[in-house]
Amino acid sequence: MFFIEKTVEFDKWLRKLKDLRAKAKILFRI
Predict the structure, then answer these.
(1) 27: left (phi over 0), alpha (psi -120 to 50) or beta
(2) Whole-Å CA distances, 20 to 1, 4, 17
(3) 12-6-18 Cα angle (round to 5)
(4) pLDDT of amino acid 16
(5) Radius of gyration of the chain (CA)
(6) pLDDT at 29
């Protein structure tokens, strides 16, 4: 159960990181 919770939190963090990288790429192109 604890492992699953940690995986969900990590997944959220990973999505946030990917989103930030995508935004940075868009800003860099402009």
Answers:
(1) alpha
(2) 29, 24, 5
(3) 25
(4) 97
(5) 13
(6) 84
The model scores a pTM over 0.85: no
Alpha helix locations (H) across the chain? 2-29
- The string of pLDDT tens digits covering residues 1-30 is 567 788 889 999 999 999 999 999 988 887
Q: Please compute, for residue 10, the number of CA atoms within 13 A of its CA located in the half-sphere on the CB side.
A: 6
Euclidean distance between CA atoms 23 and 16, whole angstroms: 11
CA 3 – CA 9 distance, rounded (Å): 10
